[in-house]
Amino acid sequence: MAEQSSDALGTVEQALGALLEDVSPLESETLPLAQAGGRVLAGDQMARLDVPAFDNSAMDGYALRAADAGQWLPVSQRVAAGSAPEPLEPGTCARLFTGAPVPSGADCVVMQERVEREGERARFPAELTAGDSIRRRGRDVASGSVLLAAGTWLDAAALGHLAGQGVVEVEVRRRPRVALLSTGDEVIDPGTPLGPGQLYNTNRPMLTRLLESFGAEVGRCVSVPDDFDETRAILGEVAFDADVVISTGGVSVGEEDHVKHALESLGRLDLWRLAIRPGKPLALGRLPARHGDTRFIGLPGNPVSSFVGAWLFLRPLMGALSGCPTLDALPAITATADFATRTGPRSHYMRAALAFTPEGPVATAFADQNSGVLSSCVGADVLVVVPANTAVAKGDAVTCLWIKGG
Ligand SMILES: Nc1nc2c(c(=O)[nH]1)N[C@H]1C(S)=C(S)[C@@H](COP(=O)(O)OP(=O)(O)OC[C@H]3O[C@@H](n4cnc5c(N)ncnc54)[C@H](O)[C@@H]3O)O[C@H]1N2
Ligand code: MOO
Description:
By secondary structure, the chain is an alpha/beta fold. It has six helices and 28 strands. The strands form eight sheets. A six-stranded mixed beta sheet has the order 7-4-6-5-9-8, with no helix packed on it. Strands 16-13-17-21-20-18 form a six-stranded mixed beta sheet, with helices on both faces. Strands 22-25-24-26-28 form a five-stranded mixed barrel. Helix 3 runs parallel beside helix 6 and helix 4 crosses helix 5 (259-266). Bound molecules: ligand LQZAQKY5 and molybdate ion (MOO).
């Protein structure tokens, strides 16, 4: 792990190094396929069937030999999807439908719109090629091949692919169990009218949704008062059977910010404060738990800082715990900036909309980039990464990290 000096601000790379050090994927469990969406495959899934399992027609039409192009041919059989055809008699054609098995002896299919039909005979176009409109056995999947590799996120298409093999149950990683703490006496739950100086807890539903979209299960949500002893007691208690403890707020330098000190007194602080905006006072460490250490991430309380921190740090951590490499790094896109800005000593992760224009992607940063302005995250497509001490002019190329889908 890279060292951080006592007063220097850490980098995103240092934070990821500290966070992901020694992480191994959680154990696996078996689930019915219908419940496996959004889970991560624990091992390679081998194909046991060819898909398709037989040569079949891509069209409603007729099967014949390409050598009989341009002929009138008698219709010698009718093959519906789900039936077994007879071998095709020479000099004849078979009426068949999309998905129906192609009779042996036929080497092409012609869609019915190109065929002239008269009673029990049909005439075919003069130009036909063997293989036309036939979906060959094993074209999609060859039995014995790796259908889906270990670590595959089971999205809609992957579930369909598994079902195509007749899979009923699948071995997936257990979801990372997260305890989510909200610090701050002023932060209350929706459902009660606001008192003076109070505000509603926006971080909790936002982070719960993001964590779920990263494959985690938010087991416990606890509100933590601004009190050192209570903060320490709650941290110790929730860490016991969580894979990850996440808190928001209370990590800055005020005397009401108890999280960092509670972490230090109970476990270990690995890194505190990053040279990023938003999200500077991030704290990373470990807490003692039932099975060794639990990872701790203290996100800053400002909602935008929590939101950005979740994409930069919680996502790769959930990926590492569930053995899913596609969650490691956010997809990067180069776009043209539709704005100008200048950074100081911290790199800036600006929330922006991305438009795909004929001239290429264009990033429009939301007007108010303050870390308390959550409207700058609503509908954001990307985080534009502006490195420290950099000027961006309108029209410059900028690197954008894709954050849709939370
Ligand atoms: N003297 C200094 N003050 C601050 C510094 C600094 O370096 N020196 N850093 C600033 C930065 S940058 C940030 S970011 C914040 C983060 O502070 P904390 O993580 O300690 O967060 P809090 O003070 O508890 O809260 C900040 C802000 O966010 C609101 N909040 C907190 N939790 C929630 C929640 N669950 N839902 C909605 N809003 C929440 C809270 O009410 C505050 O307004 O510190 C700066 N200060
Ligand atoms: O680092 Mo703070 O998150 O900018 O407001």
